[in-house]
Amino acid sequence: MEVKTHIAVVSVPVYSHLRSILEFSKRLVHLHHDIHVTCINPTFGSPCNNTKALFDSLPLTINQMFLPPVNLEDLPHDTHPAIQVQVTISRSLPLIYDALKALHATSSLVAVISDGLITQVLPFGKELNVLSYSYFPSTAMLLSLCLYSAMLDKAISCEYRDLVEPIEIPGCIPIHGTDLPDPLQNRSGAAYKQFLEGNERFYLADGILVNNFLEMEEGIIRALQEEQEKGTIPCVYAVGPFVQEEPCREGSSNDIKYMRWLDKQQCNSVLYVSFGSGGTLSHEQIKELAWGLELSGQKFLWVLRPPNKFGIIADIGARNEDPSEFLPDGFVKRTEGHGLVVPYWASQVEILGHGAIGGFLSHCGWNSTLEGVVHGIPLIAWPLFAEQKMNAVLLSDDLKVALRVRVSENGIVEREEISRIIRKLMVGEEGKEIIQRMKVLKDAAVDAIKDEGSSTVTLTQLALMWKSLSLECTV
Ligand code: UDP
């Protein structure tokens, strides 16, 4: 009799997190046909088209369970999406517990793997007597910070941003307080308190699965492994990169216009500019970026959204505004043939896989970063929010596969700086060295997920352990 090992995956309604954990689930069932995954999805509102496309791309071997949408009508109309997500998570917890209990009663459930934003689920595994893991869709460096955050909180009394010396976390490149994630920028804020509480719960995990590969963060991962051998932190498994391979686009003919445009460009000649699923710039910054692109004289493909439309659920609304209205007068005309502005959203993996792309100006969201790496595209790091500044430090100071933009004192990246850095990457000597280093990193990323690669071996060891547990359950 074939025994199916059952794993429950618990997601959060944040587009980039969802995309990452679904890719992980796909890889798991692809490598191990006798593992069955049920993905439990807390929701609020109805999913936007971009999110729907993610679910549509799943194989039939992954069951999807959508929890009833949480009612957020009592929240003020202008509640920040990040708070809406937090409230959705906390209001969904009883439903998640019930769903897990039902799965446990009816199948050989051996493990629950929950997104790193929903650490409240970690104790449920213990209650149901199954293993409980956290899926961390970011760097081992951020994970180290999370695991050491209580220690830092005790050791440092001022605001981190006021520290003169950079913070040293074992195995990590020193990092300035101003580059730490948003919740750490105000220690008296509610977000900081939540950050510490969430991090404490990581210690309840039977293991933490990181969406990165050993070769990209070897020093940090080794330092974490030394700690885990001492039994002071949970086991950390580097199992990535999980990057969407198949394009996932909405499919109107207008959307492919940019691919046709790329077909006409020379190899490695175009800079791709995008700030992820949620990032937008101020109107002033959009204009400055436009001038910088124009001044650089380099070809570009820019995914542009109207200013200050933040949306971590990739729901960019009704699309009733024409973002090009926010560009400097005459910009589109002057750059015709030289650059292309794509409104709102584009199929990023498809673009990065096109041979015409020679550079990626990115906000350093972790999915975008890994997508750049697996396609071997050198980066310009322009971090905006969340942990993106930390990612930029890793990419520019440690791995040296990115050039980081300098923000001037007025908080704007100015046109001369933009033009300088684009030229440096696309046609400068330093750009050539970055390309070489990125090639090495790309090869390592590709190798990590080959049959004998570091990430595949690690994931397979876990999977074999889960399978042996389900066999034990049936005897
Ligand atoms: N993305 C895309 N088209 C866009 C913008 C973003 O396909 O126009 C995808 C991108 O490929 C990545 C994800 O959305 O997989 C963004 O995730 P990331 O972690 O980079 O950043 P976040 O959205 O969390 O800021």
Strands, helices and their partners?
Elements: E1 5-10, H1 15-31, E2 35-41, H2 49-56, E3 62-66, H3 81-106, E4 109-115, H4 122-128, E5 131-136, H5 140-155, H6 190-202, E6 207-210, H7 218-229, E7 236-238, H8 253-263, E8 270-274, H9 283-296, E9 299-304, H10 331-334, E10 339-343, H11 348-352, E11 357-362, H12 366-374, E12 379-381, H13 388-398, E13 402-404, H14 415-427, H15 429-448, H16 454-474
Parallel strand pairs: 1-2, 1-4, 2-3, 4-5, 5-6, 6-7, 8-9, 8-11, 9-10, 11-12, 12-13
The structure holds uridine-5'-diphosphate.
Enzyme class: transferase
EC number: 2.4.1.-
Protein name: Glycosyltransferase
Which features does this protein show?
475 residues; alpha/beta; 7-stranded parallel β-sheet; 6-stranded parallel β-sheet; 13 strands; binds uridine-5'-diphosphate; glycosyltransferase
